[in-house]
Design goal:
Chain lengths: ~575, ~190
Amino acid sequence: MNYFPDEVIEHIFDSIASHRDRNSISLVCKSWHKIERCSRKKVFIGNCYAIDPERLIGRFPCLKSLTLKGKPHFADFNLVPHEWGGFVHPWIDALARARVGLEELRLKRMVVSDESLELLSRSFANFKSLVLVSCEGFTTDGLASIAANCRHLRELDLQENEIDDHRGQWLNCFPDSCITLTSLNFACLKGETNLAALERLVARSPNLKSLKVNRAVPLDALTRLMSCAPQLVDLGVGSYENEPDPESFAKLSAAINKCTSLRCLSGFSEVAPRCLPAFYPICQNLISLNLSYAAEIQGNHLIKFIQFCKRLQRLWILDSIGDKGLEVVASACKELQELRVFPSDLHGEEDNDAAVTEVGLVAISAGCRKLHSILYFCKQMTNAALITVAKNCPNFIRFRLCILEPNKPDHITSQSLDEGFGAIVQACKGLRRLSVSGLLTDKVFLYIGMYAEQLEMLSIAFAGDTDQGMLYVLNGCKKLRKLEIRDSPFGNAALLADVEKYETMRSLWMSSCDVTLGGCKRLARDAPWLNVEIINENESNGMEQNEEDEREKVDRLYLYRTVVGTRKDAPSCVTIL
Amino acid sequence: MDEFANLKETELRLGLPGTDNVSEERERVSSCNKRASPSDTENEIESSTRKTETSPPRKAQIVGWPPVRSYRKNIIETKKNESDHEGQGIYVKVSMDGAPYLRKIDLSCYQRYSELLKALEMMFKFSVGEYFEREGYKGSDFVPTYEDKDGDWMLIGDVPWEMFVCTCKRLRIMKGSEAKGLGCVV
């Protein structure tokens, strides 16, 4: 029973942006459900196979912004075949045919084709924003369609996609009448860039706040770009490979000095370190710095630069910064909230003195008390260090630790790291995401199940002893949504203990574990509302499914709840039970 | 440790003899630390961890480990390859119509066309104008061309950079009326 007219209720709902809150609202009563669904502008779909486009459009006919995620997270690490799925085309097709007024599309880990981009560009007159993260399957021809046809385009943000660069003149395809750009990010493009076209585009985009260029944009071009866009807030730099002559350096400095609104800096994919001082004047304004692709900036140049960044909130860096460098960060960057330290050497071949250890992590935790998110790749760790970190920073929301060598114990006591991670989950009551590594027994999962009450996502690799480990997690973590496990001894007993649990979760991934085909078949039978996918090494395994021994271990298992049943677009290497 | 020293001599590798650069095979390892026995290594390509007192252990490569996005991994690999190949040099002759003598340029110093063209412009004191995919170079009397493996004279800039570097035998900067024949728009 509503005491207000629908329009008033809708107006109240308009101020509620969070998806979860809106989902809750829609459950209150039929009337609210109807008002909510008809007024909903933004929809987030965490698994594109949990629902289909027709049902989406049926429920939210007025939607303007859609976010879709496709492949499971471990696809980032080559554990999922390219043809697995996550195609965006059916979605764009359905939205186009239903004449939905789409304005924004954000995709992560999906397969996008040039045809899809062309269809997108032609079907939605008011389309404003395209954000693609870790997607693949398209070329610069697709980008040319977007540039040419989306007359009101504001945002084109390409993050870490695999794009076939045809070196066509896609930047030239933005018509002269396109003056509405606010954000342009093409840092991941590998080929040449038409500098003249880029400069003209930037010059006629007075609202451009974010510009991230690719490697092919050299220093002098960057100087000209910055000169005609002093309003930039977010800048991704291209290449600086040669030491600049004094005149070029002076011009760059002058251009940078005018960019008083600059708050975020990234790129530097090729850098002569002596170019960095040109940026010193704006360091004090920076809140976000991503130098994780700048392998050439090392040692003193790097540390000196960071020391000026007193207001930094987010820092992405390579482990070449070393423990000493992290100590400098800890003393200079008191506002730091998010830190990511990536490995610069992936194969462990170099004897890397400069890489980071538990010492750096402890220093950061002691100096940066506002830290709430960390991703840390390191050579070694100790329980003592983790216990100290937990005491220093009880506010972690995301804690991801990756010790490069699997199964590595505490390097001082040679014990497992159960106690260290246990301390983290016990102290950090708000922890939502956790990745564990190093030598770990079932005990760490006992702690996680006991203490990690807010945990939503857990990543496990090379850990645990028995099914009990996985059971502790499934039974204990009430808010768990995504669980991904690789190379751990968990089998059918754990998988099948509580089938209803998977209805409360988005997905479960298990690869190189002990679950068998028989166990998976049984699960599929007991839970018809789940898609249970077996991903095989090669196609032939899929065909011979019936003759296979049910005791055979499953290579890769991916299961997820869905309301639309088995998907029709699975390739032959995927068997859906 | 003598038995290990001899093993290294007889070991089957994927690198050239005399080099220490072994490209390791990617393989799945369900448990680490396999110690190779003497008879095994003579017949197998070495890919497992070996602890010796003389050399640091080489780690087997596990699929998808460390958990770094392929995009980022590819960038690191590319950079490593680039720095590994420094010093080899791909020198080609450069001729300019009307110039009294030729020059030589090292293609491996450049990563892309814009850098090469800039170097040529500085070397011969001219400018090439702007490149368009359909029309070629507009805005200048000079046109940069190269002779490919088949002996044909091609416009610089049409094919991907890597392909160009592999197929280019020599460069020629054409001038004036002869240049127009290559598809330059008047």
